[in-house]
Design a protein that fits this description.
The chain is mainly α and 310 residues long. It has helices spanning 10-15, 28-47, 49-53, 62-87, 93-101, 118-139, 145-173, 177-196, 208-213, 221-239, 264-274, 278-291, 293-309; strands spanning 249-251, 256-258. It binds fe (ii) ion (2 copies).
Length: 310
């Protein structure tokens, strides 16, 4: 008798919404897909610390400095949860970092843009973390257990990040004409890159088919992008910021916004290493990874000594 019992095979578990765990049998393609996605996500969290780290010493008040420091530390923590989740799939953190330094692994394009003014710190929290949350909320239900659980924790912190960014923007929009102008300028520069964070349109998205079948993904790039726009436009209106898209229009039938054309040529340029800060971001990461070598060696030596004395 050919009866399928829930949870007996890989696809059967997926179909019954049972998480796949590290020791479960899984197709090589599923493993490879997840390693690529989770390591890219981890690298993004860590590289994302750079544009903001640049502003710690220039934060306009002690309160702002404390909040920014806490937020950047959170991002480092997110990187660590995610490297650990990827390690359960059989790749080491060293190997992931090597792939990053050799240009074989990517990180989110958005972090190749510079944070030019204090308003950029607001725009990053509000728009970049805001876009990240939309994506990450849907990943809380992803099929790989360690990734899904990391997301639950990360999402709680991301909503604080989004609010701190929005608070900075609201504060500046309540200020002088120069401050308002600075806030608007930051939105003008970050809006489109934030939309690009969701990746290519569904019709041009090469990895989506399998990702849906395996329930790694449960919402398409365009669906997530639309969700982000619908949630963010009213927030901009409340504080008097203009979204820099002349074609942005409420669509009564869809109950959602239609947006203008995204400049995918810019996206390709940045992804291929020609964004304003690609080289700088990678040089910085390599430099501090090398400078931290003695810490890793010392930790390893200490671990070995403990082992010997036991
Ligand atoms: Fe994060
Ligand atoms: Fe964040």
């Amino acid at each position: 008798m050919d009866v399928l019992i829930a949870g007996t095979s890989f696809q059967d578990k997926i179909d019954h919404d049972i998480n796949i765990e590290p020791k479960d049998v899984m197709p090589d393609e599923y493993r490879t897909h997840l390693i690529r996605q989770i390591s890219q996500h981890a690298h993004s969290e860590v590289i994302g610390m750079q544009p903001e780290g640049n502003w710690i010493t220039r934060a306009p008040s002690l309160r702002a400095k404390q909040i920014l420091l806490a937020k950047i530390q959170d991002e480092g923590g997110h990187g660590l949860y995610l490297y650990s989740a990827a390690e359960t799939l059989g790749i080491s953190r060293d190997e992931m970092i090597r792939q990053l330094h050799e240009g074989k692994a990517r990180y989110s394009n958005i972090f190749n843009y510079p944070a030019l003014t204090w308003a950029d710190i607001g725009a990053i929290g509000w728009l970049v973390d805001g876009a990240a949350i939309v994506n990450q909320v849907s990943l809380q239900k992803t099929s790989y257990g360690p990734y899904a659980r990391a997301m639950v924790r990360i999402c709680k912190e991301e909503s604080f990040h989004q609010r701190q960014g929005y608070e900075i923007m609201a504060h500046m929009m309540d200020g002088t004409a120069d401050q308002k102008q600075m806030a608007q300028d930051a939105v003008n520069r970050w809006w489109w890159p934030a939309l690009m964070m969701f990746g290519p349109h569904d019709s041009d998205s090469p990895h989506s088919g399998a990702a849906f079948r395996w329930k790694i993904k449960n919402k398409s790039n365009d669906e997530l992008r639309r969700k982000f726009i619908d949630k963010t436009v009213p927030q901009a209106e409340v504080i008097g910021l203009r979204i820099p898209d002349p074609d942005l229009k409420w669509n009564e039938m869809k109950q959602s916004y239609d947006h203008g054309k995204i400049n995918w040529e810019e996206f390709r340029q940045v992804i291929n290493g020609n964004g304003p800060c690609n080289r700088q971001r990678m040089q910085h990461h390599v430099k501090y990874h090398e400078e931290g070598r003695w810490v890793r060696e010392a930790a390893e030596a200490y671990k070995n000594r403990l082992k010997q004395s036991n």
